[in-house]
Each structure stands twice: as structure tokens, then as C-alpha cells.
Amino acid sequence: MPSRDVQPRVVVAEGEPGAAVRVLREVFGFSSFRGAQEAIVDRTVAGSDTVVLMPTGGGKSLCYQLPALVRPGIGIVVSPLIALMHDQVEALHLLGVSAAFWNSTSSAEETSALRRELMAGRLDLLYVAPERLLMPSFLAFLNDAANGPGIALFAIDEAHCVSQWGHDFRPEYLRIADVTQHFPGVPRIALTATADSITRREIHDRLRLTEAKEYVSSFDRPNIRYVVEEKSDARAQLLRFLESGDDGAGFTGAAGIVYCQSRKRTDEVAQMLRERGYDALAYHAGLASDERARVQQRFRREDGVIVVATIAFGMGIDKPDVRFVAHVDLPKSLEGYYQETGRAGRDGDPAVAWMAYGLADVVQQRSFIMSSDGSPEHKRVDQMKLDAMLGYAEASTCRRRLLLAYFDEESGDCGNCDTCLSPPELWDATVPAQKVLSAVVRTGQRFGAGHVIDVLLGKKSPKVVSWHHDELPTFGIGADIAEREWRSIIRQLVARSVLSPDPARMGALTITEVARPILDGSERVELRKISAAPAKVKRERAGGVPRTDAGAGASEADRALFEVLRTQRRTIADAESVPAYVVLPDRTLWELATVRPRTPEELLAVNGIGPVKVEKYGEAFLALLAAHPES
Ligand code: ADP
Ligand code: ZN
Questions:
Q1: Are residues 457 and 524 both part of a single domain?
Q2: Is residue 3 part of a domain?
Q3: Is there a single domain that holds both residue 510 and residue 565?
Q4: CA distance 367 to 361
Q5: Of ligand 1's atoms, which has the minimum distance to the CA of residue 60?
Q6: What string of DSSP letters covers 352-414?
């Protein structure tokens, strides 16, 4: 596809001192680099190879886009995600960068136009799919480029696709180095958000990046708040979560993802949200592919769409302003959970990862594992992953610390998760634990939590009476503790593998070896007390935070202006057919609404606005700002 008739706006002289910072300000509109970006950019500009491991939202694209502008010639970006390619190229056009993509959808006409642009030295960045890169015709094209305007760099995005062990494996990635070896003087930069050490080794080996320096960023996402709730009625709880928020505005108008375990449930939950006035859409693998594409497109392009999805809604969700990710069912593993929650708050503004889970989830997940046709070894690994997930859900210490430790990263308490914000009270639960265990044993290890609790509470339910469990010595010995607390005790004992629900027998609780020392009194049990008002913290402090940092301190008038600016952004985005955030991110809109610049110069000082955006949209936004006097 030919790039539009956009001329490169920034001309960089070879070896110009401070060129990178100038381009950062003048093209991208950012005042400073983030984290390792500066070192990576400098190294790439200097012509060396680099491997970049950064979490989603860390700012990887700038690491190759900027050097491609500073170095002479064209930057070649290999990316497996065609839909994203399109958006990236559109976003670059709006910055005044001349970029194009070349993939299976490009026609012969488009590619010959592309060649002309290239040979005229008018192209800064070219995105290609890996299978295109490997074609002989493309090698000829690269040779022309090398002999003409030059090749600035090769960027290999989603570099973990070289890993045969990963689920994103792309065989074409194994042959990328065969192509780049023809251009030994051109720096290469491989980027990924997947951090485990096996994948890292494979990236170096298979892309033949033996000399490359590796930059590993922290995988922490400090702007995401982690909150876990005990599940009683998931739908009601989800609604309460969505309606919460310090300013009472909740998540109205915010984009979010709700993950469910089954297709049926996505339909039900989406339906319920629509009835409550949310713009919610269901997404799962059972939908026709054009319907799936439509949902993805609406989510990406429009404001405030909630997608209720199974994990089929996955790779390639790069929308930066997702304000919450909710799990109404327990995920299978912490890796999956972290990846899913990581889709929130890529723009760095406050976001919430909320989950509701209960014992029934554990039973269901276990039964999935049991009935899968994997090998015993496979089942064992799945079970271990589920145990780690459960440990997280039942944590009484900082949740982020636990998450990061799972990925081998050390950290202190975060101050931005529910356990940090409202530390749970711990209590000596040895005696209650013994009571549960004995009730489980006395009833023959054949009943689920509900029945065991009835026995403990001394409830003469028909089932209790018919099994004569009201005649047991354990009947009623737990009447001093509320039912909810008993549920919590049982869940925590399951999370610690003291009790084990048997999925083959409808979740019947059985005791394990770990229970022995507790039963004979040689081991104490310390558990987390459930708080008196479970949702309080979430409503008052942890709940909806759709506002950005700038928005948090905004007055009523600022907010009203924000909405006006947002409508203007929507109009521009529709006219240019790009997602709204590509025009201007939320954070920039908030800055406009609170700072209220009056002139093009003042506009330039706003983070996220460079000269090209001032030229294109300055007038429209300044007119709106002028119509709103100082607050
Ligand atoms: P990744 O590809 O690592 O997931 P992106 O490259 O999409 O992340 O960047 C995430 C967000 O951070 C984008 O909205 C981008 O504009 C913004 N960003 C990147 N670098 C900077 C910077 N130096 N200053 C401010 N914002 C930045
Ligand atoms: Zn914490």
C-alpha cells in the first residue's frame, strides 16, 4: 500500500548531535524518554544489535520507530499482526511520518507505487509480514533499497514467535536471520513482551543475535490495581464493581474486558450488561469470523465498548485506554491471568484488574484438567499452575509481589492492590480448621463445602437429616462462626492443599497428608479473616478509576470540557477512520481540559502533541478551548 502523500517532516543530518531528543519532541511530542528507551535508541542509532524485553504498554514501538527516523534510509519492521500493522502505519501518518505496510493484502499496483516512494527516499518505515520478508522478490527490493536510500534498521517485533515452545510460534521467524545476514552493517532490534528465560535464549540463538545487548525492563505494571473478591453472585458483583468509583462515575464510558470461562456465559453477561445500559459485546471462538472482526473493530475504534470474552480474545489487543479487565471466573494459570490483566492501562493511566472467584471455580477447573486428554505429566503441570493461581487468589500479602515473584522478579509491597490498601486481619484458625477437617472425615469425605458447612452450623437441612448427620458429634460445633467465614476458611484450606475437592464427585472435599499435623494439633493454622464489609475498600478506594491522573483532580467544568473535547476527537477519528486514541490519547485530552492552552505554542507544550498534530487539529481544539473560559 502506498504511503499517503506525506513528506518526511523532520530532516536529520547525519551525526547531528541530540537528534534523538529533537525527534522525540518534534515528531512524537513527548518531553522525555521512558525507562530504557533512551539507551536502546542510542544503541540502535549507533548501529548495534539489541534485544528488548518490555511489558505490554512499555513503549517498545518508539525504540525502533525513532532510530528509523534518525538513521538514513528506511526502517524495515517485521510484524506478524496484520491488523496492528495497519493501525501503526495510520498512527505514524498522523505524526507526519511516512510509513507503509506490505503484506498479502497489498496489490501489484500498490507495491510498485511503494517502490517508487522508496527509491525517491520518501519512506521512513515499512512494515512487512514475515512470509513477505522471505520472498525472493522482497530480497530484490531490499537490495535496491540498500543500494539506493539505504536500510536504517531491521526491527523484529513479537520476537517470541521464534519459540517453538510458545503458542505464538511462527515458522517463518526461524528464517528471518537468513534474510538479514545479507545486510551485515544494518542494526537489528528484536522486541517482545514475553520474558521467560527459555524464550530469551531462543531469540538470541534463532535470530542469530549473539552479539546483541539485552535490555530487560521490569514487568511490573504499577498503574494496574489488583483486586480479588470472594464470589457469591458474580453478575451482581460485576455490576457493583462497574458502578463503583470514588467520584460515583464508575466505569461508565470506559473501555473494558470481562473474561469468562465459557461461551454461554459471555453471552449471558454481555446481555445483562446491555440491559443495564453498557455498550457490551460478546466475543468467543464460536462466532463467525466477520462477527469477531466486527467486535474487535468496534472495541478498538470506539470509546467505552466492553467486550465480554473467552480467552479467544487475545493477542493483538493493543488498545491503550482499556480501563479495567474483570475476571468473573478463575483463570487457569497466573501466566494467562497476567497476560489478560496486562491489557488494561497500556497508556500508563490508572486501571483495575478485578476478579471474583469461589470454590466452585476450583472444582470446575480441576474437572477440566481431569477430563482433558493430556498425559499424566501434562495434567500434573496444569494442576500446579492452578495451585499457583489459587495461592494468588487467597493471598494475604501483597498481590503484585506474588505475581512478580512468579516471574522471578523481586519487589516490595506495592500499595496499589487490595491487600496493601486494606491489609487482611490474620487470626489463629487452628481450632476452626480442626473442626472442618473433622466434619469432612465424619461425613465420609463424600460431600461438598455446602453440606459440610450445614453440619458445622447445625442446620437440619433435608440432606443432613436423611444422612443422619445431625446425630454426629460434629453437628453444630461451628455455630459460632458465620457461614461466609466458613466458606473462606475452606477456600483457604483448599488453596493450601489441606483439603482437596474431588471434581469426579461433584467437588466432594477430601483431606490430604498436609491435614494430619493440623488434626493432631502439632501445627498451627493462621488464616485471613474476611472483612466485615467485603466490598467497602473497593467502593471507596479501589473501585472504578476511569479518570487519568490529570482527570482525578479535575473540576466539574474540566470534566464537562473533557467530554466536549472527546466528542471532537471522535469526529476527527471517524473522518480519518482511525481509532480515537491515535488522534490524541485520553491523558492529553485531560491535560487540555485542565491546562487550557490558548495558542499553538501553548498546545505544543502539552505532552503527546507535536508540531504535526498542532497543524492538523490545533485550530479545532483551540476554538473549543477558547469557548470555555478559565475554570
Ligand atoms: P508496547 O508496544 O511496548 O506495548 P507502545 O509502543 O504501544 O507499547 O507504547 C505504549 C504507550 O506509551 C503509547 O500510548 C505510547 O504513545 C506511549 N509512550 C511511549 N513512549 C513514551 C514516552 N517516552 N513518553 C510518553 N509516552 C510514551
Ligand atoms: Zn500490593
A1: yes
A2: no
A3: no
A4: 10
A5: 3
A6: EEEEEE-HHHHHHHHHHHHHS---HHHHHHHHHHHHHHHHHHT-SS-HHHHHHHHTT------
Query: Residues 210, 92: one domain?
Result: yes
Report the separation in Å between the CA atom of 331 and the middle of ligand 2, taken as the mean of its atom positions. 20
Distance 186 CA to ligand 2 centre (A): 44
14 within some domain: no
The pLDDT of residue 3 is above 50: no
The ligand 1 atom at the shortest distance from the C-alpha of residue 54 is 3
Out of 62, 77, 94, 343, give the residue to mutate to test ligand 1, the one with the largest number of ligand atoms within 8 Å of its CB. Answer: 62
What is the predicted pLDDT for the residue at 531? 63
Q: Which domain holds residue 114?
A: 19-216
Q: ∠148-27-319 over CA atoms, to 5°?
A: 105
Distance 554 CA to ligand 1 centre (A): 24
What pLDDT band is residue 542 in, cutting at 50, 70 and 90?
very low
Q: Are residues 508 and 583 in the same domain?
A: no
What pTM was estimated for this model as a whole? Answer: 0.77
Same domain, 404 and 441: no
Distance 400 CA to ligand 2 centre (A): 5
Residue-averaged pLDDT of the chain: 88
Q: Which of 26, 28, 157, 588 to mutate to test the pocket of ligand 1 (most atoms within 8 A of CB)?
A: 28
Q: What is the pLDDT of residue 503?
A: 81
Q: What is the pLDDT of residue 543?
A: 35
- Band the pLDDT of 176: cuts 50, 70, 90: very high
Looking at the CA of 222, which ligand is closest? 2
Which residues touch 189 (CB under 8 Å, ≥6 apart)? 40, 44, 49, 50, 51, 52, 63, 64, 67, 153, 154, 155, 156
For the chain, what is the domain count?
Answer: 4
**Which ligand has an atom closest to residue 225 CA?**
2
Number of the ligand 1 atom closest to the C-alpha atom of 56: 4
Distance (Å) from CA 63 to ligand 1 centroid: 10
List pLDDT tens digits, range 347-358.
888 999 999 999
Q: What is the DSSP string of 406-442?
A: HTT------SSBHHHHSPPPEEE-HHHHHHHHHHHHH
Query: Each residue of 196-238: pLDDT tens digit?
Result: 777 888 899 999 998 899 998 888 999 999 999 999 899 999 9
Over residues 375-405, the pLDDT tens digits come to 888 888 888 888 889 989 999 899 999 999 8
Select from 588, 408, 391, 416 the least CA-distant residue to 496.
Answer: 391
pLDDT recorded at residue 7: 46
* 9 located within any domain: no
User: Where a domain ends, among 499, 528, 557?
Assistant: 528
Mean of pLDDT values over 129-145: 93
Examine the pLDDT at 537 and tell me if it is beyond 70. Answer: no
Residue of 46, 50, 103, 344 lying closest to 215 (CA atoms)? 50
> Do 407 and 476 belong to one domain?
no
**Helices marked H in 148-262 — which ranges?**
176-180, 197-206, 234-243
For 68, 341, 419, 526, 600, the CA distances from 398, given in Å and listed in that order, are 41, 16, 6, 17, 46
Is residue 540 in some structural domain? Answer: no
CATH number at residue 167: 3.40.50.300
Note whether 456 and 470 are same-domain residues: yes
Are both 116 and 240 inside the same structural domain? no
Last-in-domain residue among 421, 456, 478 = 421
Query: Chain-centre distance of CA 257, in angstroms?
Result: 10
**Cα 482–chain centre separation:** 37
Q: How far is the CA of 423 from the centre of ligand 2 (A)?
A: 9
